[in-house]
Input
Amino acid sequence: MPSYDNLIARAKEKLEDLNAAELLAAHILPGEDEFLPVVIYPHIQFYQPADVDALRAQDTLPPSIPFTLYVHIPFCAFACTYCHWVKTINPDPALVEEYLDVLIEEMRLAVDKLGGERIPITTAIFGGGTPTYLTPPQLERVLTAVHKYFDLRGCRQFSFEAEPRSLLGEVGAARLRTLRDHGVHRISMGVQSFNDDILRHMGRQHSGDEAREAIAAIRDADFESLSIDLIYGYPGQKHSDWLDSMQTAIDLEVDAWQLYRLRILRHGERQAAILNEFEQNRGRFPGDDEIRLMKMVAAISSEDAGYKQHFTRIFARGPQHVTHFMVDYCCRLYNVIGLGPSAWSNYHRTFTVNVADDFDRYYALVRAGKLPADRALLRDTETEARRSFISPLKNCRVGKRPFAKRTGMDLREHFGPEIDRLQGFGLLEEDENQIWLSERGRFFADETVMQLFQKRYLPFPQVGHDLMPE
Output
């Protein structure tokens, strides 16, 4: 790795070329510290309480759209200060067993609602929470149920999220064996940092050395792929801390990493504790200029080491190491079966979200034979067209023919003025077949695609322009 001074000099030069000031003046970038990633469009905060069965009855599910699978395990051994997701800390073992009872019953209900005995799945992922919080027998139980209700013979990638300490020692080795025995291909591990001081501040219980040990254990268990998560923009985090973590990942020859900007504002179902610290001690948090510098030096060091960028935040040694679940729901726009509290699903034009914090209500709905979704959004023609443009644009490329086939619209005719505007800022590139983010647009990917939102779905009112429809 080049010297820190050299990397930072290169990063500053590239950032100068990207000219964030121009995009701030044009209101393409939001104000200081206002950042939300564009994961799905529209964001779940805009879904309304609804009779999900009645809403789905208005929709027609084309049988040709495949399904991906997401399973939520809402348990953790500790609380991270940056976490926005639904979870319970160190639950009573009986509660975990009860949860698995209900989760497996939800699997049966989901399959029954779709009219099949086993639903073919293209990709699958367990997220959380901490899926590897479960004991080896509990993992055995839930994974056996997955194979009972879902056909994974055509599953290109089965991923499992993990926490380092849960993979250590004899119990950790047993967990890894259980995952491998049930066809899990890829482990995505939340390392977040290799710096012990930063980890303690985050509320993480593992150390940098334990993260290294867990990486070695995953390698010894012979999984096809290993990805880790790293967070930048944390309070008190120095450029040298961040670059040390990047260099450690490179030295360990991890297959891929996802680089997350610290999300201060609520992104999931719960507001993370980090907001309190931000409001009380904002001076400890790096500003947007520093955060962009961290992002750029990470990109340069990753690419120097032979890792190519995917999905604007993932760097991988090859496409086989990226999360194929994201390929399917972001780029191919496949349907999603989401199981567990707060999990979201997509059936053709209908987004649904399961009951979040009220576990008793989640249990009651499933035991009454009902899918536990309580919020939904049926996308109208314009919203569906924008989702079909925004999601592939941010994460891969938009094919003009596939867009027309999906929506019945000509991409250029429908979005011409907005495309021209973004091209005028050097954010998009285009040929006769595709539209994609330029180098500048890819660096500011979330902010760029937000310019294609409908006004009613904007998280920041000041971000936008006159071409946006309501």
Q: What stands out?
A: The longest helix spans residues 93-113. The mean pLDDT is 92.
